């Protein structure tokens, strides 16, 4: 029996607003994605994941949805989407949508009716409402990811509503049967149009504790810099979200998607991953999921990879989705290499990403080795960046427009871009790298091709080889095909020795230099190499 298409697939994450502007208004759009489909196909990926495409007032840039069945006016029309979907399918590319079903915009008609229709109205309980405490303060201690209490008072109902993120993102009440069915019907609507699946935003947050139990604090002796970086990280999110019964909701969602043949649904899990169902098997919850464990890593140490895969080893029936970078975190090469990161580091990290077991997500520009952009406060559009400036510049540094050419605005737009083009991306455009056989783009295409041509790298199990810093090595194996993958995490030459290397052949694709001699291989700084067991 053939494996499902998504198992071992590579999806290219398109942040639509920053991808390519087709009409000169400074915003990327669906016709812009359409115009670059040949480029996406040329990478060798299996499909694309589009950031939210629905109408939104853009308080959180599309993750606050006001109409789940429409298309954001900046992005085009329903016809534009259908044209893109059909063209992608004609090229053999899958299309996965980003759906945000845990909350809506506060201008969504559902919320407006819940607010104005009274406590006995038909949608009164479609959102999480609670009475204030006698002194007017919030119903409990739940804190928002984006700062402050996770509650907002509305005098029209004399109640607070819950919002895990911005005040303008009220939490949908999945405990109400009407609200839950409305959310599930969103999936039906787009599946019927032919989309190939969904990435579910914050998939651990569908359910809240009905008793509104306060969240416990993170014990003082367990707090790390990540906890102190945001007030919300100082409490354990056991009751506002990440409930154990969330597992049942994930199973309902997956079965809803499975009603349509050959589809894929995976989730984003950012807190209490094991508790809320991130590591379930495809038969129990979603088909797959990814966490922020590797997305938040800042130190290039073996544990960046090995610790996460030790966790995954406890869930052998789970099929992971692997991601190093996305629209929410600083770009990978800058996280690990700083402002003057080596181009070889970018290639090595890409090789590592594509070599690990799972379904792989590549964030736009990752194939170019793009570093993080540095922006001034007046250039920021992200509410998180504004909230925590200057401690944290927010998410805009990884959302700047794609550099396509050496021309004006790097070929992204003929107008004024919604975010400035990054000065750090000069010399790294698609046009320039496409002509350079030694570029990150050329290597990325070759690395993806190796993955697709090698069963062990696509579907194989993974077994880490005991090494010491700064070497990471593992074997991928599938039905007799075995490949040893070796990575030098340092800026100095290293030697990796292992008995298995007595019977291998060094594959031609590598980044940096690799010298195989007997039972050892010498690696140049930030090198990666692949050896087939014979």
Protein architecture, described:
Helices cover 25% and strands 16% of the residues. It is globular. Helix 11 (343-355) packs parallel to helix 14 (440-453). The chain is an alpha/beta fold. The protein has an eight-stranded parallel sheet, with helices on one face. Strands 12-13-14-19-16 form a five-stranded antiparallel sheet. The protein has a three-stranded antiparallel sheet with strand order 4-6-5, with no helix packed on it.
Key attributes of the depicted protein:
534 residues; eight-stranded parallel beta sheet; alpha/beta; five-stranded antiparallel beta sheet
Mean pLDDT figure: 97
How far is the N terminus from the C terminus?
27 Å
Give start-end ranges of low-pLDDT stretches: none
Strand content: 15-25%
**Main β-sheet: number of strands, strand sense, barrel status?**
8 strands, parallel
Summarize the structure.
The chain is an alpha/beta fold. Helices cover 25% and strands 16% of the residues.
Write the layout of secondary structure elements.
Layout: E1 10-14, H1 30-35, H2 37-43, E2 47-50, H3 78-90, E3 94-99, H4 109-116, E4 129-130, E5 151-154, E6 159-162, H5 177-192, E7 197-200, H6 225-229, H7 246-258, E8 264-269, H8 273-276, E9 288-291, H9 303-313, E10 321-322, H10 332-337, H11 343-355, E11 359-363, H12 383-388, H13 430-434, H14 440-453, H15 455-459, E12 461-464, E13 471-478, E14 481-488, E15 494-497, E16 504-506, E17 514-517, E18 520-523, E19 528-533
Parallel strand pairs: 1-2, 1-11, 2-3, 3-7, 7-8, 8-9, 10-11
Antiparallel strand pairs: 4-6, 5-6, 12-13, 13-14, 14-19, 15-18, 16-19, 17-18
């Amino acid at each position: 029996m053939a494996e499902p298409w998504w198992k071992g697939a590579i999806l290219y994450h398109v942040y639509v607003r920053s991808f390519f502007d087709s009409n000169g208004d400074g915003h990327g759009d669906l016709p812009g994605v359409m115009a670059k489909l040949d480029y996406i196909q040329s990478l060798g990926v299996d499909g694309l994941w589009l950031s939210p495409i629905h109408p939104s007032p853009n308080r959180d840039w599309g993750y606050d949805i006001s109409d789940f069945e429409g298309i954001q006016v900046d992005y085009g029309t329903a016809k534009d989407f259908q044209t893109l979907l059909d063209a992608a399918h004609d090229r053999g590319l899958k299309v996965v949508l980003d759906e945000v079903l845990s909350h809506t915009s506060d201008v969504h008609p559902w919320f407006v009716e819940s607010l104005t229709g009274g406590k006995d109205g038909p949608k009164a309980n479609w959102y999480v409402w609670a009475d204030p405490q006698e002194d007017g303060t919030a119903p409990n201690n739940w804190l928002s990811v984006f700062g402050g209490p996770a509650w907002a008072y509305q005098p029209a109902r004399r109640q607070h509503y819950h919002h895990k993120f911005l005040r303008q993102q009220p939490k949908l009440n999945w405990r109400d049967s009407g609200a839950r069915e409305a959310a599930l019907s969103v999936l039906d609507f787009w599946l019927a149009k032919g989309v190939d699946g969904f990435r579910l935003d914050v998939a651990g947050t569908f359910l809240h504790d009905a008793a509104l139990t306060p969240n416990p604090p993170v014990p003082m002796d367990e707090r790390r810099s990540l906890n102190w970086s945001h007030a919300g990280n100082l409490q354990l999110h056991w009751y506002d979200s990440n409930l154990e019964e969330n597992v049942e909701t994930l199973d309902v969602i997956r079965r809803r998607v499975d009603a349509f043949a050959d589809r894929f649904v995976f989730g984003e899990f950012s807190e209490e991953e094991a508790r809320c169902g991130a590591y379930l098997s495809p038969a129990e919850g979603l088909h797959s999921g990814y966490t922020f464990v590797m997305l938040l890593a800042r130190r290039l140490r073996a544990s960046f990879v090995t610790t996460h895969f030790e966790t995954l080893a406890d869930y052998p029936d789970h099929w992971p989705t692997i991601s190093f970078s996305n629209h929410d975190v600083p770009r990978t090469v800058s996280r690990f290499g700083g402002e003057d990161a080596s181009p070889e580091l970018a290639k090595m990290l890409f090789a590592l990403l594509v070599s690990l077991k799972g379904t792989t997500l590549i964030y736009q520009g990752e194939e170019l080795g793009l570093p993080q952009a540095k922006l001034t406060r007046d250039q920021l559009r992200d509410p998180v960046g504004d909230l925590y400036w200057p401690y944290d510049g927010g998410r805009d540094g990884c959302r700047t427009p794609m550099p396509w050419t050496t021309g004006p605005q790097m070929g992204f737009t003929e107008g004024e871009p919604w975010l400035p083009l990054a000065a750090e991306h000069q010399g790294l455009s698609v046009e320039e790298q496409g002509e350079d056989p030694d570029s990150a783009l050329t290597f990325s295409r070759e690395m993806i091709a190796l993955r697709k041509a090698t069963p062990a790298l696509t579907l194989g199990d993974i077994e880490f080889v005991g090494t010491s810093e700064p070497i990471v090595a593992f074997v991928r194996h599938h039905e007799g095909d075995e490949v040893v993958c070796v990575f030098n995490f340092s800026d100095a030459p290293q030697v990796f020795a292992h008995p298995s290397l007595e019977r291998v052949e060094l594959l031609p694709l590598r980044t940096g230099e690799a010298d195989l001699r007997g039972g050892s291989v010498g690696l140049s700084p930030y090198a990666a190499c692949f050896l087939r067991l014979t």
